Amino acid sequence: MENTHLFDDREEMGEESLERLAFFCNSHKLLGVEIEVLDLRLKDLKEKQEIISRVKIPGLLNTVGLSELKLKSGEKVVIQDKVKANIAKKNISEAFAAMVEAEGGKKEIVNSLFKTQLVIPEIEDNLLDYLLEQGYTYDVQKTIHPQTLNKYCRERLSQGKNIPEIITVYQYQETTIKK
């Protein structure tokens, strides 16, 4: 069988074109390496800034009992308490139940925080209608938006209430510098 190529009807590449192609290919590889190096450098800089923002500055201000300070430059340094919370997907139902219990059995409070969604992968509408008509049950998943969960945990902490253990909570302080 004869070797055919998409560009068989075109002229063969001349020496100059081949040199340009080699140059572009080499440039492509070198830029890829440079991008990887810069990505690593950017990651390192972000980690250093995070340490300064979350550890160094709050540590200094906390030792003198301050949460904000105005600098000579006119900038205002503010330390805020932050909360990041997470529920593993496999623990959503258990977390929902634990949150209802933490709210004294008030399911409506926790229900308002969660979104309910029907999850049946790759199903067509007419098949779903049929299942519903026939009374077949299916899984319904509850999810909670990360910011909603953060707010819920932040409010419980500020009220001195416990957060269910099934929820992973990370508390930290964050520095903001405002002009």
Give your account of this protein's structure:
The strands form two sheets. A three-stranded antiparallel sheet has the order 1-2-5. It has a two-stranded antiparallel ribbon with strand order 3-4. It is an alpha+beta fold. The N and C termini lie far apart (73 Å). The longest helix has 49 residues, at 15-63. It is built from five helices and five strands; from the N terminus they run αββααβαβαβ. 49% of the residues lie in helices and 20% in strands. The radius of gyration is 28 Å and the shape is flat. The protein folds into two domains: 14-66; 78-178, no CATH class. β1 (68-70) and β2 form a beta hairpin.
Describe the structure concisely for a colleague:
The chain has five helices and five strands. It has 179 residues and is α+β, with helices and mostly antiparallel strands.
